[in-house]
Write a structure and sequence with these properties.
homodimer; alpha/beta; 7-stranded mixed beta sheet; 7 strands; 49% helix; 11% strand
Chain lengths: 291, 291
């Protein structure tokens, strides 16, 4: 039976658009396009946005824009180097974090907190983040919403757990949580193709998450989990899963309030006012919310 | 004969769009619209932008958006109170500034500098400005481009001068410069209707600029001077003028590089990267440029 909350089902709104406009104006500046191409890209962005009519979805739009950017730049993975840096940074932190978890009075809670700290490594929100400061902060902060006790109970009963990954780098923190959970039926899902610095199968293998969980692709190009676009392979696992662990804003925006019938726990750092308003928390807050 | 520069004729580009998106997302938030109206407004903004095809003009777009906002808010002048505050602030500063000019070794240059300082009072760029800090700064700064000696010479020869005003508040600084110029054939032009905090006939009368110059409206709703849309009355004065003094980014964007055949001096504070790049100066720079 899914946990329930009194939260709105729609998250994306008009405010997302200025965020996209800022992000993509900055992005196209860095890609070696000429002025005509930059002008044309941003105009095309407006065309795509104008085609939504009451059905605007930030992660769908993001997927469309990044697909368009790949066409303009002729580069299928502009974040390739950034993802490697995120993974390497997190892998360097991993031994110290593992020690913190093992020496913790409550390894589950500590690993859960660290997994949420890892969610700061999100180029879709901002390429400027301080992972160490976020780790320090997450370990001593009150969570804005904390349904972690319910998550722990649900995991004890679940035969199959589907863990929806988010970003490169962050997946190292996810690996640490998965090692701590020691759940025998856990499947870890990544994006179908490179989009922003979201983790793909390549990243999962690079950080060795395949040594602690079965790893699958969701088969889609959006920086999210949008069920109607995911692959049959992914959907088969999704349907079988007793509990869904959903990392990050992108997955939240795709799944939250969609009446999926699945008990889903959203683990994230709240990075924008739109998601903050939807969850009725402050921007910057750490959240474990059953939805 | 117009003064010449080696500067580009097009100023607006794709970067303007994120600036508009930010400004109008913030604006619609403050207008008491419901969520559907806010979503619809921002979608309509994208529709309008998408209709430009290589002919994007920031001031034309701005005029369209502010006209649209008036329709949504049913308020023809959302900046009415802000304009009064700008005018009152500047009128309070006026006696002290007049004293500075009168006691200055070079009243023309001092009044010119102060007129450019007044250009900071621009809600189109930012509603958060520090006029006193800008005054202090402008009086002791090197100008990024300084064609003021040429301006002074041209004014001596000109029978008719058309001074294109920009913002409420700023027009008090313009009044001080006009009093200092003491040119017998000076006409001061304002916007045709309220748009942002740009000065209208009402503002001109409020600060008494009609006591030192003939005041006319340009007859159009854009926060700029776009000759193809200006009124016959305005164009008659424009055609007769020997020298044009153009205040601010909006007028620059409308007139710069347009081969008008008129000797035009653009006086402004550079408030964005797009105009900075076009003028090959840094953002924040003070400019008197013949174009």
């Amino acid at each position: 039976m899914p946990a329930t909350t009194n939260l709105p089902s729609m998250i994306s709104d008009y405010r997302c658009f200025s965020c996209f406009a800022n992000a993509f104006v900055k992005l196209v500046e860095k890609q070696g396009l000429n002025l005509d191409e930059k002008n044309a890209f941003i105009r095309k962005m407006a065309v795509l946005y104008s085609q939504y009519n009451g059905d605007f979805s930030a992660p769908v739009f993001s997927g469309e824009l990044h697909t368009l950017l790949k066409q303009y730049t002729k580069n299928p993975d502009i974040y390739k180097e950034a993802k490697k840096q995120c993974n390497d940074t997190a892998l360097q932190l991993y031994p110290g974090l593992k020690k913190i978890v093992l020496e913790s009075a409550n390894p589950f809670e500590t690993a859960l907190r660290l997994a949420i700290a890892g969610n700061i490594m999100d180029f879709g929100a901002s390429p400027d983040f301080d992972i160490q400061a976020t780790i320090d902060h997450v370990l001593k902060s009150d969570f804005a919403i904390n349904h972690s006790a319910r998550l722990k109970q649900s995991l004890l009963k679940a035969k199959t757990v589907l863990y929806l990954g988010d970003n490169a780098g962050e997946i190292v923190f996810d690996k640490l949580l998965i090692e701590t959970l020691m759940h025998p039926g856990l499947v870890y899902a990544v994006r179908g193709v490179p989009v922003i610095n979201d983790a793909t199968l390549e990243d999962a293998h690079y950080v060795g998450i395949d040594t602690v969980a079965d790893v699958i692709s969701n088969g889609h190009y959006a920086p999210s989990t949008i069920l109607e676009y995911c692959s049959p392979e992914f959907l088969a696992v999704y349907q079988k899963a007793d509990v869904i662990i959903s990392k990050g804003q992108g997955n939240l925006e795709g799944l939250f309030g969609k009446n999926t019938g699945k008990e889903t726990f959203f683990l994230l750092m709240v990075k924008c006012a739109v998601v903050a308003d939807a969850l009725k928390v402050k921007k910057g807050g750490f959240v474990v919310v059953a939805g």
